[in-house]
Amino acid sequence: MTEPDLAHSADTFARLAIELHDAPGVEETIDAVVQFAQQALSCTYAGVALSTRGSRAEIAAVTDPVVTAFYEQQIATESGPLITALRERTAVLIHDTTTDDRWPELVTGTPAIRSVLDVPLATGDTPRHTVGVLGLYAAEPDVFTTDDEAIAHVLAQHASVALASARHEETMAQAVDARKLVGQAMGILMERFDVDGDRAFAILKRYSQDTNTKLRDVAQQLIDTRKLPH
Question: Mind telling me which Pfam families this protein's record contains (predicted)?
Fold first, then answer.
């Protein structure tokens, strides 16, 4: 990569970091990643698929319905570069889908995609983390260069960090909301039954266990209806 190219890439990723930081949530972060990938690299389409806790891959964001069809075919057959990149957490490059013999069914399934570059994402280091794939696709063969691959890997690293941060912030926000709801519900019980906070919390917890309902949902129902679930 030449010096001007390096300077351009540095500026490009600086803008990406700002865009991802400003994204308000997980969905918005993923959308920013695919839109940015399409602008920054030599691709016609881009997409992200995610798999949480070893579950079946799910389509998180695409820039075109062509990518949706491409992903759906692979998810249905559990075969293809997307599935390989997810399971093995390794990048997969296809120079031309019409001549690559690893997944011949892809040729007839999505003829609009000729070049493929699938790069893995990871949003944590635990067994429960989310893994995903950033997919870059082109309508022409032999589109992706060595430089494109290098940039894609850097982009994937930025995206992984941003997704992990966004997911953590959403989880923390949900936890804060849950604590607020439980606090409100405890206040209702304390006033109604003239009990202290420990007793009010014990009542909520017992109803949660007896009805197999999340504590947050028990609290929400009490706040909404002024009644505990039966």
Answer: ANTAR, GAF_2
